[in-house]
């Protein structure tokens, strides 16, 4: 007696018929299509086992339905791009969505290397220095007046030279006596510390920090012997080639402040009228 060979789902005999095995179970074509075939994204009909099933990201198409959303040309065996659930050939995608080169105004095709800066895009070969016309690539560049320059060309054409080191100033420069300096070159003549952002003064056209200036040039207080800078509104008293800080101009004996008062002198000392009445 011959063993039966039936469809696993409808139980109809499969002798002399086409069938498909799935998980070791045989199915007639009709049952297999109704149970397991994918639905085409384009025509919404099942993709039968006798049709080619093209898939992309868990979506499926008949071979004849797999075409560009825009121009309807077939995408079978061709590169394509996806935008908002739609498939587009590279030409339609480029015309619709790809950025345009800021230099040649042509489309930058998908997959092509491009350069971007402040919302603008260039073909790699179009992103060049305005002066030497060489591609900038990944090298540093400096924009000026809507044009881009490689650093050497910018320095040759635009950068000011530091008074101290004679090298170009590209960033971080300062101006002193209407001359340009690098921040790191503008230093105290005495201690060589940077003066940028610090209080300083000058003598004979040389810049000094306050400490060095006071140490080198300021007169010494006759009371405390510390320098009197005279800077920043500091008040001091001067008498017969001697100077005192306001706070140091006091009676030698009773320490009464003599600022704005009469006083007497005894050798190098100053005295209030009361302490000096017996002189």
From TrEMBL:
Record flagged with keyword Zinc-finger: yes
Does the keyword section mention Membrane? no
Residues forming the LIM zinc-binding domain are: 38-98, 99-160, 219-279
Xref: InterPro entries: LIM_FHL1/2/3/5_N, Znf_LIM
What GO terms fall under cellular component here? nucleus; Z disc
Q: What is its main location?
A: nucleus
Choose any GO biological process term that the UniProt entry carries and state it.
Answer: atrial cardiac muscle cell development
SUPFAM superfamilies in the record, alphabetically? Answer: Glucocorticoid receptor-like (DNA-binding domain)
**Molecular function GO labels:** bHLH transcription factor binding; identical protein binding; transcription corepressor activity; zinc ion binding
Keywords noted in UniProt: LIM domain, Metal-binding, Nucleus, Repeat, Zinc, Zinc-finger
- Name its cellular compartments: Nucleus
Signal peptide per UniProt: none
Gene3D superfamilies, per database record = Cysteine Rich Protein
CDD domains, A to Z: LIM1_FHL2, LIM2_FHL2, LIM3_Fhl2, LIM4_FHL2
Record PANTHER family: FOUR AND A HALF LIM DOMAINS PROTEIN (PTHR24205), FOUR AND A HALF LIM DOMAINS PROTEIN 2 (PTHR24205:SF3)
Q: What is this protein called?
A: Four and a half LIM domains 2
């Amino acid at each position: 007696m011959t063993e039966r060979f039936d469809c696993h789902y409808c139980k109809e005999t499969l002798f002399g018929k086409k069938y498909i095995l799935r998980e070791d179970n045989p199915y007639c074509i009709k049952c297999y299509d109704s149970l397991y075939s994918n639905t085409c994204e384009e025509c919404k009909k099942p993709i039968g086992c006798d049709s080619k099933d093209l898939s992309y990201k868990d979506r499926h198409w008949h071979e004849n339905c797999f075409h560009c959303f825009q121009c309807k040309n077939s995408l079978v065996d061709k590169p394509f791009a996806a935008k908002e659930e739609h498939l587009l050939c590279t030409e339609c995608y480029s015309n619709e969505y790809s950025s345009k080169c800021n230099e040649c105004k042509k489309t930058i095709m998908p997959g092509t290397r491009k350069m971007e800066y402040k919302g603008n895009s260039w073909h790699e070969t179009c992103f060049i220095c305005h002066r030497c016309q060489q591609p900038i690539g990944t090298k540093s560049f400096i924009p000026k007046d809507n044009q881009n320059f490689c650093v050497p060309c910018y320095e040759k054409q635009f950068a000011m030279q530091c008074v101290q080191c004679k090298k170009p100033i590209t960033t971080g420069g300062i101006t002193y006596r209407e001359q340009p300096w690098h921040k790191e070159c503008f230093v105290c003549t005495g201690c060589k510390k940077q003066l940028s952002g610090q209080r300083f003064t000058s003598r004979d056209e040389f810049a000094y920090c306050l400490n060095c200036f006071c140490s080198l040039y300021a007169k010494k207080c006759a009371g405390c012997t510390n320098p009197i800078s005279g800077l920043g509104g500091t008040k001091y008293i001067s008498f017969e080639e001697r100077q005192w800080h306001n706070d140091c101009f006091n009676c030698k004996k009773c320490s009464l402040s003599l600022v704005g008062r009469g006083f007497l002198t005894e050798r190098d000392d100053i005295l209030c009228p009361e302490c000096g009445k017996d002189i």
